[in-house]
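Page 37, continued from 36.
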């Protein structure tokens, strides 16, 4: 993201906190998907999460496991952010 990077702390299955940098939010069929990069990821692999919940204060994030949906979101991300995909 531009001048102000946004980081979202999340907890993995083992209870460890991982900070993710929000790279983009993509909306498909009225659902929000977040393309994020773990702060300590040295390889640059992004992860895609669906944002769920009723309001900003109660959002939860679920990893997108559907490979076809994940690829669709990633392709849109690359189109919108070519400078991040070099």
């Amino acid at each position: 993201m531009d001048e102000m990077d946004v980081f979202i702390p999340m907890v993995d299955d083992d209870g460890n906190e991982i900070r993710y940098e929000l790279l983009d939010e993509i909306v498909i069929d009225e659902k929000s998907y977040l393309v994020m990069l773990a702060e300590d990821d040295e390889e640059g692999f992004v992860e895609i999460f669906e944002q769920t919940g009723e309001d900003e204060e109660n959002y939860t994030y679920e990893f997108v496991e559907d490979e076809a949906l994940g690829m669709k979101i990633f392709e849109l991300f690359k189109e919108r952010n070519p400078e991040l995909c070099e």
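The beta strands are 7-11, 17-28, 31-38, 46-52, 60-63. Flag for discussion at group meeting. The chain has one helix and five strands.
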